[in-house]
Amino acid sequence: xxxxxxxxxxxxxxxxxxxxxxxxxxxxxxxxxxxxxxxxxxxxxxxxxxxxxxxxxxxxxxxxxxxxxxxxxxxxxxxxxxxxxxxxxxxxxxxxxxxxxxxxxxxxxxxxxxxxxxxxxxxxxxxxxxxxxxxxxxxxxxxxxxx
Length: 147
Ligand SMILES: [Fe+2]
What we know:
Blueprint: H1 3-27, H2 30-60, H3 66-72, H4 76-87, H5 91-114, H6 121-145
Helix pairs in contact: 1-2, 1-4, 1-5, 2-6, 5-6
Organism: Peptoclostridium acidaminophilum DSM 3953
InterPro entries: Ferritin-like (IPR012347), Ferritin-like_SF (IPR009078)
Protein name: Rubrerythrin diiron-binding domain-containing protein
């Protein structure tokens, strides 16, 4: 898989994660809702930071295939059914969904980090992102224990 595609998947995961925390915030008491909103903002900042790397790669790579560009295009239909799915989930299901997403993100960023030279801008970014996702995962696990 090409780096560009990986980054596109990472961006999709982050957008989904932000939606999940938004839903959790809507269904939770104020204290938990506040934390969920902070996480939502963090996931959205991940989208921007990863997109910046993705765009810098695109500038250097003039040979993107049509397949890759199609992958990068937003898929409205999938987005809509995902939104509906989230709307029907209980708090526990939402937290479980968030947990799965965080695990996948940590795995993905740990892999992406290995592609770059230690100390480079990209390696540092993915290391930070993985650490933030780990923080999210611990919080989600704590909440699940209480449900
Ligand atoms: Fe996260």
